[in-house]
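Hi X.,

You mentioned you wanted examples for the new student's onboarding notes, showing what a folding record looks like when two proteins sit in one file. Here is a clean example. The first protein comes first, with its sequence line followed by its structure tokens.
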Amino acid sequence: MSEKNMKISINDVGVSNEFSIKIRIDSLIKKFFDENIIDKKSREQLYSWRSQDTKLSVSNWSKNAAYNDLQKKIKFLKQTILQYVKIDHIYKQKLGNLELLRTQQEQKDWDDIKCTIALYDKNFSHGQLGYVSFILNSSLCISEQLMAQDSYAIQLLLAEMLHFIS
């Protein structure tokens, strides 16, 4: 398969019907680690997710039994993300300089954050590139079990980020 990046479209209803995937997620994880965006433990967790599923090379997802379930999970993840991020401020920031809305109690809850990943969405911020902070933490009402099992959604989110930072 070609090593070139292939764009994945994520929109309000999920993942578009027209895409094929060849993801260089390993290089993205290395980039995060080298730039101190994630720690060693988070890096190993992401590598674990990366190795759990090899079906991402399948190009015809419309016939994949997991496709519709994946759409629902992506939509759920996006809705959860939006609850915790100040969109009108984020688009002005560069990757690595994201600010989150935090109350004192939230700050305490977020001391255990393992990883921060950005998700690109062309619909945010009046047509400009929107950077949405995706906090990989069970305190955001996303269970660790879901995250551990949902390698499709996790890798798609990583792939979308890889598309615009590589």
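Then the second protein repeats the pattern, sequence line and then tokens:
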Amino acid sequence: MKRVLLLVFCLSAFLFSCKKSGIAPANTIVATVDGVTKTYVVEPIITFAPVNQLIFDGYVNHDQKADWISIWLDASAPITTKSYDLGSSYIDAGYSPANPSDSGRVYYNTDDKYLYDYNFTVTIKSIKGNNIQGTFSGQLLGLFRKSVISVDGRFNINVERRNVN
């Protein structure tokens, strides 16, 4: 009997310790920037129905002097489960590494002028109620186009939808 209980306990502990690696926790962005993976906390997003825009940004641990990442997707029709890229939609993605002061921050952004050299894709994988999940990947350009960083990640965002009156 003790062996059966021990086996059940160990099996339960193993199953509950497994993580779903493909899904980010709610209201987070998990991103890998030039090989370094971090989790960014996102404030709840307010959108207006119909949802043609998805805009969210986050900081590591809510610290505004920490790493920052932002995604802005503006589609010509309501957002659905599909892939959007710079060639077919307006996407503005940005990243800024941690900086102890508010001045002198370095920013990396998408730039549609360099569409054929660098691309950025946002894929909406799931829209269920007020929850939107997806992935993103691409290159962001630094100041004066002197540096390029690779970014990829996933997001799990809860939105509050409001009707436009």
